[in-house]
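Case 265 in the screening queue. Each case pairs one protein sequence with one candidate compound; here the compound is adenosine-5'-diphosphate. For every case the pipeline is the same: read the inputs, emit a complex structure as C-alpha cells, and attach any notable structural observations.

Predict complex for case 265.
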Amino acid sequence: MDGTKRVVLITGCGKGGIGYEYCKAFASHGCYVFASDLPDRLHDLADLASENVEPLELDVSSDESVAAAVSEVLASRGRIDVLVNNAGVGSTGPLAELNLDEIRRAWEVNALGQVRLVQAVAPRMAARRAGRIVNVGSVVGAVATPWAGSYCATKAAVDAMSDALRVELRPFGVHVIKVVPGAVRSGLGRANAERLAARSWRLYEGFEDAIAGRAGASQVGRATEPGVLARHVARRVLSPRPPRAIVFGHMTGLFAALAWSPLWL
Ligand code: ADP
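Case 265 output:
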C-alpha cells in the first residue's frame, strides 16, 4: 500500500454519469479512488478498477451502508482525504402532480445522502486537521426550473448546507467546496429530457414545442461533457488553495437566470 496517495471516496460512480468521470480525473492526479455506487450498479464500475481505483458498494440512502463503506475505506487506507458527494437521483415533473414518494426519495438521496457521508467522514477529517469535502449541487438549485421543482429544492438544500458546513469546518482545517454544474450531458440530464419529452404530465401538455424543446432535449444537446467538468473539478479541488465554489458549464449563473426565465413567464 502506498500511503502517500491521497485517498478519495466518491459516491454515485455508475457508468454514463459524472461520478464515473470524477473517478478517472482524481486517479489521473495520482489519488487512490474508492469508486462507489449502489450494489446493483457495481458491475459498471468494473471498467474503472485499476491499481488506483477500487469499486465499493455504498447506498447513500442507508445509514448502515454508509457506515460499512466508510469503515471499509478506513480499514484499508487509514484515512479519507477527499469526499466527493456526487450520488443523485432525478425528480422531474410538475410539482402539483409529482408523486410524494418520488419527492421523498430525491431528498433521501440528494440531500440527506450527503449529510450521512459528511457525518461519517467530517469528524475524522477534523481530528486530523485536514480534508476536503466536495458537495455536488446544480445550477437549478439557484434558478427555479419548471418541471424540476422537486429536484431543484434538493439542490438548493445542498447549496445552503454546503455554505453552512464550510464555515463550521473551516476552523478544523477541512475545506468544503460546492460544485455547481450547469447542464451536463450525462445520466440525469438525459433521463430528465426523455421524461419531459414523453409528456406524460397533464400540466405539461399545454406548452408549445419550442418551450418543451428548451426544457429538455436541446438543453442536453448543448450541455457540457461530463469528462470536461470532472477534470476541471478534480484539478481545482486538489489545488493547494481550493475554491469555496466551482461553478462550471452550460447555463450556469446569471446567464441562466437572464436568458431563460422570460420563457417561463
Ligand atoms: P449525473 O448526471 O448526475 O451523473 P447519473 O444518474 O448518471 O446522473 O448518476 C447518478 C449516480 O448516482 C448513478 O450512478 C446512480 O446509480 C447513483 N445513485 C443513485 N442513488 C444512489 C444511492 N442511493 N446511493 C448511491 N448512489 C446512488
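Case 265 observations:
- Residues 11-12, 14, 16-19, 37-38, 41, 58-61, 87-89, 109, 113, 184, 186-189 surround adenosine-5'-diphosphate (CB under 6 Å).
- Residues 237 and 243 are 7 Å apart (CA to CA).
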